[in-house]
Specification:
three-stranded antiparallel β-sheet, 7 strands, 9 helices, mainly alpha, single chain
């Protein structure tokens, strides 16, 4: 990202990646938008320094997040540990972990200049008795900025998908401590996938892979520390080891 103090922080033909949430959500729910960088972008177009900016909302989701243990500690009230050079140098150990797949989805790009024009037109059609007569230009800009931020988040949400591990985890967490056989687990994952789609949601593509194989891969990613197998039964039976941790590792 360019230096935010420079007179022209955004230029034509530049591609700028903005983390609108300020960080990655570990629960799969979108975080409230951070308006700092977005404010620079909006001002660049409003002032005419940049003719237009094309915005493309992007959703990035994971089968399993890396910082499971540290995030659980944070939820229990422990302070977030500070990042250090030692942690950075030891990050190569992450490559040996089974973290599954990453799903990246792109919303249809749109023009910021056109968005501003539409919002200004809508504001001009508000009846005078409804509009605030003492509204300041700064207030109008703030409303425009907030509308922009939440529009981007809404479109990120529209293209987001439910990951296989989330489907498996949801099924296991609805069993109230009981185990589930492999065939029944596959059936429930298929049923849940159809219910998500029926409600207008999206499920990660399996690329024609049988659901049984998708479930096997998902169980492998979750690992035995989260999903254990009941021994001594005629069919493979699984249950959630820690019902508190599983929701935190799924995006």
């Amino acid at each position: 990202m360019r230096n935010l103090e420079m007179p022209r922080p955004f230029h034509c033909l530049d591609a700028n990646y903005l983390k609108l949430e300020g960080g990655r959500s570990r629960t799969g729910k979108l975080l409230p938008p951070k308006f700092g960088i977005l404010s620079f972008l909006l001002d660049s177009v409003l002032s005419g320094r940049v003719d237009d900016a094309i915005i493309c909302p992007v959703s990035t989701q994971y089968d399993k997040v890396i910082e499971t243990e540290s995030y659980i500690s944070e939820l229990l009230g422990q302070p977030k540990p500070k990042e250090s050079l030692r942690d950075f140098l030891s990050a190569s150990s992450v490559l040996s972990l089974q973290l599954g797949r990453v799903d990246v989805r792109f919303h249809e790009p749109w023009s910021l200049k056109k968005f501003i024009s539409q919002q200004q037109k809508c504001s001009s059609t508000v009846p005078r008795q409804v509009a605030h007569s003492n509204a300041k230009p700064a207030d109008a800009r703030t409303r425009l900025l907030r509308t922009l931020g939440y529009k981007v988040l809404s479109e990120i949400n529209k293209v987001s998908v439910v990951m296989p591990t989330a489907l498996i985890g949801t099924v296991l967490l609805t069993l109230r401590g009981r185990g589930v056989g492999k065939p029944e687990l596959v059936r429930r994952v298929e049923w849940l996938s159809e219910r998500v789609r029926a409600q207008g949601g999206r499920v990660a593509h399996f690329a024609g892979t049988p659901t049984s194989i998708v479930v096997d891969r998902g169980l492998e990613v979750l690992g035995q520390s989260l999903v254990s197998r009941v021994e001594g039964l005629p069919e493979e039976t699984f249950y959630a080891v820690d019902r508190f941790v599983i929701p935190q590792i799924m995006e």
